[in-house]
Design a protein that fits this description.
Two copies of one chain form a homodimer.
Chain A lengths: L3 H8 L3 H8 L7 H14 L5 H8 L4 E6 L8 H14 L5 E6 L16 E5 L6 H9 L4 E4 L9 E5 L1 H14 L5 E5 L5 H16 L9 E3 L4 H12 L7 E4 L2 H14 L8 E6 L12 E4 L2 H17 L7 E4 L2 E3 L10
Parallel strand pairs in A: 1-2, 1-3, 3-4, 4-5, 5-11, 6-7, 6-8, 8-9, 9-10
Antiparallel strand pairs in A: 10-12
Helix pairs in contact in A: 1-2, 1-3, 5-11, 7-8, 9-10
The structure holds a DNA duplex (30 and 30 nucleotides).
GO molecular function, one term (chains A, B): DNA binding
Protein name (chains A, B): LacI family DNA-binding transcriptional regulator
Organism (chains A, B): Paenibacillus haidiansis
DNA sequence: AATTAGAATGAAATCGTTAAAACAAATTTC
DNA sequence: GAAATTTGTTTTAACGATTTCATTCTAATT
């Protein structure tokens, strides 16, 4: 491995000069700098990031933490997140991926190891981790889950508003008996989406029976089961809002199995707009959550924060989009 | 930040002794070791990995490289891979994720940066990268794509065998006119899967018309288009094998759109067994590719290789499983 | 010619760790 | 009981970079 000392020897200068030249220090004569840069290129010099890190007390890595990698993290999700981040991230930072639930010692999460941390949070249970990071003084951005704490940089999608818009649309299409299959208990997203649903009902003065709220857990399987339960009600709903697309797919499947027509018999709205939403039969009407955008924006915020830790934290809301496809019927009122 | 020197001062020994004690060096008296360990714990000592890396010439990171993060990497895929790796990986290694297509300077991929590299390869185009890594002397395992080079550790699924088994099954069910929607040109997996298909036909002395081979590219969209083309043939096939599930879903969609019954009118077999395969209507018969297993096995191999670079490279084949569901009709011959 | 300011470079210290070599004390060997 | 060995520890030197402080060189000013 070639080091700055090797370059120094060839160039006939001290390694200090080489270091300065290569780092754009203005004290170096242009002539000298050019010569050194040329030699460095010829010798195929690669800076040793460990040495750099040691003296600069920077790690050149930023950590991406999911609530859990093993479970609950839906597939398309992870890709979008990594995509979004890699887009915004400078080349000499590297991105490491972790599951919060598999961290054994919180102590190992230190400023020395991470220049910045992105938390793709899906549950309240992440708070312990989040506050550890904050206490440790590591620049931090929490994505995806709304935090109450105004002291933490937070980027989320406007789930409540998105659902509100979708249900408004459903009501405008003539639906009056609306049910919901809820997300996993304890996840902030579950309550946000439910709130949007309730808000819309309230605004239109529609009653809601507790029978119409089924407890899913974001899994395809739970969507299937809960849909069966809703269909079996004495007065079944005309529209079911599923708190994510996975459950909507499970729900559609339950309908096929029992010969219930979509949207003829019952209408369906999902949430997320996963890749497959477009290709279900009929194509799923759903709320697009801009995960890649959230991640990209979050990464930009993190970079700002790393450059100047004094920046006041803020909450950014990223807008969702209602993707109108074919699973909501227009009813004659 | 507390360092070994701080510990040394408190314990009244030299920092070297502390280093040795903390690293399980047998030269240290048990009594001394215990004392040092206790103090380290009390002082909340966190080893500085950069300093360690610098002197040990190890980076404590292993790199996971995808052909591309932006495109072509199917979603479920990425999760399974990371899941598999995190399972097998020691806690003080960290995993960084990259897209091969977004590397600007191959030079930055050096032994100094990576203790080991896993390549989740999907295309021949990765070869340049792979050989760079090999030349650089970084322990390397290539996953997912079969390599000809016996000098490189390689873990792949037995795609050809898996397809062969599936088509044998289809033929046993009475199918005689079998078509295939192929994967993306240039991907090894495409040719492997086609070969399995052809092998089975040959073994059963079935003719294959070139009309029956449609050129897909692994996208849902291409599955849709190619299925339409196959259905429009004067003598359409009774069964279509799609080289992945995404295309099978596109194909199903095309059938719905044109009122073609599955499996009544045409049968379908996919490949991958993605999460949604089970929930299509009807449920998709497909070949399960054990991505998580491949990744886990690959990681284990990589760890072995990192410990002893002399280990002779080998090819590991991981078996696929035929998931028989509802998209293949039994025909009366 | 002597003085001096400023530009350009170099020497040496530093970051936190491991490791080779040196040393001291305790134990064994003859 | 002196020499040789073992055991436990310290001293010193790396690793490859940045940075502080000192020094040299150049050119302008007196």
């Amino acid at each position: 491995m070639v080091t700055i000392k090797d370059i120094a020897k060839v160039a006939g200068v001290s390694h200090t000069t080489v270091s300065r030249a290569l780092n754009g220090n203005p004290l170096i004569k242009k002539e000298t700098r050019d010569k050194i840069e040329k030699i460095a290129a010829e010798l195929n010099y690669i800076p040793n990031f460990n040495a750099k890190s040691l003296v600069m007390k920077k790690s050149y890595t930023i950590g991406l933490f999911f609530s859990s990698i093993d479970q609950g993290t839906s597939a398309s999700f992870l890709v979008d997140v990594i995509k979004g981040i890699n887009h915004a991230l400078d080349e000499n930072y590297s991105l490491t991926v972790h599951g919060i639930d598999s961290i054994k010692h919180l102590d190992s999460i230190s400023p020395q190891r991470f220049d910045g941390i992105l938390v793709m949070s899906q549950s309240d249970a992440d708070n312990e981790f989040i506050y550890h990071v904050k206490r440790a003084g590591i620049p931090l951005v929490v994505l995806n889950r709304h935090l109450e704490d105004p002291g933490i940089m937070n980027v989320v999608s406007d789930d409540k508003g998105g659902v509100r818009e979708a249900i408004d649309y459903a009501i405008a299409q003539g639906h009056r008996r609306l049910a919901m299959i809820e997300g996993r208990a304890g996840f902030k997203s579950s309550t946000e989406r439910k709130q949007g649903f309730l808000d819309s009902l309230l605004a239109h003065s529609l009653a809601s029976s507790s029978d119409y709220f089924a407890a899913g857990d974001y899994s395809i399987e739970s969507g299937h089961q809960m849909m069966n339960r809703l269909l079996a009600l004495p007065v079944p709903p005309t529209l079911v809002f599923c708190a994510n697309d996975d459950m909507a797919i499970g729900a559609m499947n339950a309908c096929y199995a029992t010969g219930v027509a979509i949207p003829g018999h019952v209408s369906l709205i999902g949430f997320d707009d996963i890749v497959f939403a477009k290709y279900t039969n009929p194509a799923l009407t759903t709320i697009r959550r801009p995960i890649a955008d959230i991640s990209e924006l979050g990464t930009e915020k993190l970079i700002e924060l790393m450059q100047d830790p004094q920046i006041p934290p803020e909450q950014s809301l990223v807008k969702t989009t209602l993707m109108i496809r074919q699973t909501v019927a227009k009813l004659e009122v």
